[in-house]
């Protein structure tokens, strides 16, 4: 992670459990424009590293904005960031993308649930700036629980936003179908929110636009059944070879053997440990690579994914 010292210049309250932090560089330099949909690693006062989506306009150079939801079972990440004050200094990394605007689409549909509005907001900024056809559909439990409602209702793209408050999960299906009414196989759908919400959006959208044209941004790790795991061999492109036991990850074995692998969440969410696959068949268990990336089989997340073949040859990025 590239360490960038930033100072908190403004704190906002979007909901009782969601606060925004506006960040400026401590060295006074401007931020480089980022690709919409990006997130950054943030190290808070307790030293815990977590990822948060950037939700300010991608071209804005003076500051960056993140939104932090206070998780009830926080292990020191979101809870610590809910205690910082204006003037406090944090450390962040360079923006990284798992989801970004796809060029050449005839229409873009953004579907957000709850705090999942954060990456969708930056995508909306970029699509609006590019003059592209898009619609943003936002579901939240109530006005009090929603984030950025005032902004969404007054932004330059407000006429492209549909806000649905208090709609039960099952009743959201026809609303998503309505939003897909003009979609084609050249359209792209982007979604973020609770796991069940995104699964439902994907189930509705994939038959219309195609599975590869549905892009999902995860905040939570997938639940994985490891009971049938077995050992396999990993060989680096340098020729070094390592046995990966059934109860160990590729990442942990490489790290224990002094191999430097950039990593962050270690849960298959952030994509920082994704590396190339030169030979063999990976068993994808992450929530960061797209369906198309997984089908290609030429990269994998070393922290959670394993092998379907007896041996993998990998290239560290």
UniProtKB/TrEMBL annotation:
The keyword Oxidoreductase applies. SUPFAM superfamilies: 2Fe-2S ferredoxin-like (SSF54292), Ferredoxin reductase-like, C-terminal NADP-linked domain (SSF52343), Riboflavin synthase domain-like (SSF63380). Residues 230-317 form the 2Fe-2S ferredoxin-type domain. PROSITE patterns: 2FE2S_FER_1, 2FE2S_FER_2, FAD_FR. The keyword Iron applies. Signal peptide: none annotated. Keywords: 2Fe-2S, Flavoprotein, FMN, Iron, Iron-sulfur, Metal-binding, Oxidoreductase. Residues 1-102 form the FAD-binding FR-type domain. It comes from the Bacteria. One of its GO terms (molecular function) is metal ion binding. InterPro entries: 2Fe-2S_ferredoxin-like_sf, 2Fe-2S_ferredoxin-type, 2Fe2S_fd_BS, Beta-grasp_dom_sf, DmmA-like_N, FAD-bd_FR_type, FNR_nucleotide-bd, MRET. This is Oxidoreductase. It comes from Nocardioides luteus.
């Amino acid at each position: 992670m590239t360490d960038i010292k930033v100072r908190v210049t403004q704190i906002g309250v979007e909901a009782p459990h969601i606060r925004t932090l506006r960040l400026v560089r401590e060295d006074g330099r401007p931020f480089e424009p980022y690709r919409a949909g990006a997130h950054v690693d943030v190290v808070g006062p307790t030293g815990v590293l977590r990822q948060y989506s950037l939700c300010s306009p991608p071209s804005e150079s003076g500051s960056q904005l993140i939104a932090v939801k206070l998780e009830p079972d926080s292990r020191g990440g979101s809870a610590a960031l809910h205690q910082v004050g204006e003037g406090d200094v944090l450390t962040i990394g360079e923006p990284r993308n798992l989801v970004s605007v796809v060029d050449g689409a005839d229409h873009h549909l953004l579907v957000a649930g709850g705090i999942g509005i954060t990456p969708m907001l930056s995508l909306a900024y970029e699509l609006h700036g590019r003059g592209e056809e898009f619609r943003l559909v936002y579901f939240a439990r109530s006005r009090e629980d929603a984030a950025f409602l005032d902004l969404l209702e007054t932004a330059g793209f407000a006429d492209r936003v549909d806000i649905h408050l208090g709609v039960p999960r099952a009743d959201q299906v026809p609303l998503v179908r309505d939003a897909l009414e003009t979609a084609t196989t050249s359209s792209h759908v982007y979604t973020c929110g609770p796991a069940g919400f995104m699964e439902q959006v994907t189930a509705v959208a994939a038959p219309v636009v195609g599975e590869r044209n549905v892009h999902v941004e995860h905040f939570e790790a997938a639940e994985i059944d490891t009971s049938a795991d077995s050992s396999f061999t990993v060989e680096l492109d340098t020729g070094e070879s390592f046995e990966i036991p059934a109860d160990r990850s590729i990442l942990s074995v490489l790290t224990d053997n002094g191999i430097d692998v950039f990593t962050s969440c270690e849960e298959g969410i952030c994509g920082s440990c994704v590396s190339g696959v030169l030979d063999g068949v990976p068993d994808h268990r992450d929530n960061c690579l797209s369906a198309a990336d997984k089908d290609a089989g030429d990269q994998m997340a070393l922290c959670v994914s394993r092998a379907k073949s007896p041996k993998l040859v990998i290239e560290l990025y």
